[in-house]
């Protein structure tokens, strides 16, 4: 039976270093950590401190990885995750990757060390190949942001359909020049929403001009700047779709600064139905995502994989809703 001394000898490090790696001490040099983890994998060694009772042990914990804590969008998803996990007998660990590959990989080592039984990620920086390799060995689920081509379970809304419906609403109210404030980070959802916007315009027999799609960084200030850019065109848009509510807030704030009435002179639709959209002035029309349900379903998917890693991967699409408020014509509420 392999011991911690055997691991130390094979990896060419001290027993103390092996112990520190097992306990996820951040002070261990990356090169030494990688040697120890590789040796552990090759020898199938399971540390007593985290493995418990050989390899069949469970931690009864689920790791949830967020890209940031600054986005209120994730709050209801986390609530759904925590409540459903508790119902099924699991605890939840929440980590923040700050959009960094190195940080994401650091947390994923908890799977190897059996400190968690599965992972739910709400945004991953890993490549499709890396995700596929990971998902063949460990329970791994993507929520909201699915990586195209990844062979793993996921739950999300139909971003293309949602943006199509929002754009179609504008067109049905006579708008022929429609702008879009998109992003440059959440590739999967952004691509789907841009495609839905474009398809709605083309299906209506209007001219699609890619210059009306501008990119942002999701901060309200960026929404202001992108709205300013759109309205500087010789033929500015009379309606704007944004890929997040924070961008919609920024766009409306810019309109106010130049004396243009949002909802009357320029219509605005955001995305996500954040709580502030109901109390902002004007209240903001938005595409609502079932965030609480996204969280609950993601737990069901990862627990299914925990129970049987070979179970067929499921891709679940939840319904969205277009909610009309004052940032579109008030008489449509």
TrEMBL record:
Q: Which SUPFAM superfamilies match?
A: lambda repressor-like DNA-binding domains (SSF47413), Periplasmic binding protein-like I (SSF53822)
Gene Ontology MF term list: DNA-binding transcription factor activity; transcription cis-regulatory region binding
Keyword field contains Cytoplasm: no
Gene3D superfamilies on file: 3.40.50.2300, lambda repressor-like DNA-binding domains (1.10.260.40)
Q: Which domain of life is it from?
A: Bacteria
UniProt KW Transcription keyword = yes
Which PROSITE patterns does the UniProt entry name for this protein? HTH_LACI_1 (PS00356), HTH_LACI_2 (PS50932)
Give the HTH lacI-type domain ranges.
2-56
Output this protein's name.
DNA-binding LacI/PurR family transcriptional regulator
| Species name | Anaerosolibacter carboniphilus
């Amino acid at each position: 039976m392999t011991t911690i001394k055997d691991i130390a000898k094979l990896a060419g490090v001290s027993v103390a270093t092996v112990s520190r790696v097992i306990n996820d001490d951040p002070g261990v040099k990356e090169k030494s950590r990688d040697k120890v983890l590789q040796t552990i994998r090759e020898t199938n060694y399971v540390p007593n401190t985290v493995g418990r009772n050989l390899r069949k042990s469970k931690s009864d914990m689920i790791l949830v990885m967020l890209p940031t804590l600054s986005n209120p969008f994730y709050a209801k998803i986390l609530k759904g995750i925590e409540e459903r996990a508790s119902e099924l007998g699991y605890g939840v660990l929440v980590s923040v990757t700050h959009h960094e590959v190195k940080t994401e990989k650091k947390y994923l080592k908890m799977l190897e060390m059996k400190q968690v039984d599965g992972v739910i990620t709400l945004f991953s920086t890993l490549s499709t190949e890396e995700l596929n390799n990971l998902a063949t060995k460990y329970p791994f689920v993507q929520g909201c942001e699915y990586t195209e081509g990844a062979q793993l379970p996921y739950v999300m809304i139909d971003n293309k359909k949602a943006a199509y419906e929002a754009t179609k609403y504008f067109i049905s109210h006579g708008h022929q020049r429609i702008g879009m404030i998109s992003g440059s980070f959440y590739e999967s959802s952004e691509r789907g929403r841009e495609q839905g916007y474009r398809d709605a315009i083309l299906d209506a027999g209007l001219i699609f001009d890619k210059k009306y799609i501008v990119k942002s960084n999701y901060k309200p200030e960026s929404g202001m700047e992108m709205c300013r850019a759109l309205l500087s065109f010789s033929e500015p848009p009379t309606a704007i779709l944004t890929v997040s509510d924070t961008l919609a807030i920024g766009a409306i704030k810019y309109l106010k600064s130049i004396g243009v009435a949002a909802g009357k002179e320029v219509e605005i639709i955001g995305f996500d139905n954040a709580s502030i959209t109901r109390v902002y002035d004007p209240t903001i029309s938005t595409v609502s995502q079932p965030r609480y349900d996204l969280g609950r379903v993601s737990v069901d998917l990862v627990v299914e994989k925990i129970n049987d890693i070979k179970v067929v991967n499921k891709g679940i699409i939840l319904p969205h809703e277009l909610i009309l408020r004052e940032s579109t014509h008030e008489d449509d509420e």
